[in-house]
Amino acid sequence: MGFLGPSGTFTEEAASKLRGVLVAFDSIVGVLEAVDKGEVDLGVVPIENSIEGPVGMTLDLMVHDYDLKIRNEITIPISHKLLVNPDVKVEDVDIVYSHIQALSQCRKFLDKLGVVTHATPSTSAAAELVSGKKNAAAIGTARAAQIYGLKIAEDDVQDYKNNVTRFVVIDHGDHSMTGRDKTSVVFSLMKDKPGGLCEILGEFSRKDINLTKVESRPSKEKLGRYIFFIDFEGHRADPEIGNILNIIKSKVEYIKILGSYPTEGEDLHSFR
Ligand SMILES: O=C(O)C(=O)C[C@]1(C(=O)O)C=C[C@@H](O)C=C1
After folding, report:
1. Are residues 215 and 117 in the same domain?
2. Does the residue 201 lie in any domain?
3. Is residue 130 within 8 Å of 84, Cβ to Cβ?
4. 101 and 53 within one domain
């Protein structure tokens, strides 16, 4: 199972909830590429965070670059630690390294600290970089502190206490129906008109189907054109959901089903 590494990331913590041998990759694209090529069976990547919102890289790659599916979701609490070398004091730190998502989740804390920040490919890559450096700190996990010989100078440095990140397990196909499932789709509207989005979402409300996420991202074609990501309760193999998806297909310009998978906590270990 591929994950965003090196060892000591939050993604590794999420992936370790599943059975399987873990293989670290330096980037989200590296994980998806390895799944696509069959170098690993599955990949685990972050998709959204409760403070900072979407992990744009994952969403963009799933829409534009790969035809892979979500087969599970895993949500874990995220407690960020300020990590320094054992002989370094927080007052001496003038540069903090971390993943852009982590830096964004700790913005107020970093402002108060009055430091320069530098983005790295992951939180553990930051910890590795800081190891042996004076005047530098990383934001990352307790496990990264252990692995890279750092100490936790400050705990829980995220700006809001209830911080969670949702990860997805990526495969060539999605999960079979369990009875407690979610489906993720992305679509774009035929044209920009009053009530266009409402018409699509109305298909779900008419059948009393709960949406668990609605998000828009730039289409990357031109300013003001968006693609919409929605997650809803139900499996695409359920005939009622299939009907709704068929109706929607006839009304949108583009639609891609990103996968149906068990709602968190259900069937995390049943991969086939
Ligand atoms: O760098 C890491 O430790 C990661 O696993 C990535 C990641 C992310 O991209 O959202 C995962 C969880 C946290 O939200 C911060 C960083």
Report:
1. no
2. yes
3. yes
4. no
Q: Are 13 and 78 in contact (CB under 8 A)?
A: no
Span 97-114, pLDDT tens digits: 999 999 999 999 999 999
Decide: 99 in ligand 1 pocket, CB within 6 A. yes
For 15-59, how does the pLDDT look when each residue is reduced to its tens digit (9 = 90+)? Answer: 999 999 999 999 999 999 999 999 999 999 999 999 999 999 999
- 187 lies in the same domain as 226: yes
Last residue of a domain, one of 171, 201, 234: 171
Domain span at residue 20 reads: 2-78+163-171
Q: Do 187 and 256 belong together in one domain?
A: yes
pTM score, two decimals?
0.94
d(CA 234, CA 217): 23
Angle, CA 176 vertex, CA 170 and CA 178 arms, to 5°: 115
Ligand 1 contact, 57 CB (< 6 A) = no
Measured CA to CA, the distance from residue 65 to residue 4 in angstroms comes to: 18
Q: Are both 186 and 225 inside the same structural domain?
A: yes
For the CA of 163, the closest atom of ligand 1 is 14
Q: Give the Å distance between the CA of 230 and the centre of ligand 1.
A: 22
The pLDDT-based confidence of 265 (bands split at 50, 70, 90) is low
Summarize the confidence of residues 135-148 as an average pLDDT.
Answer: 98
Query: Ligand 1 within 6 A of 49 CB?
Result: yes
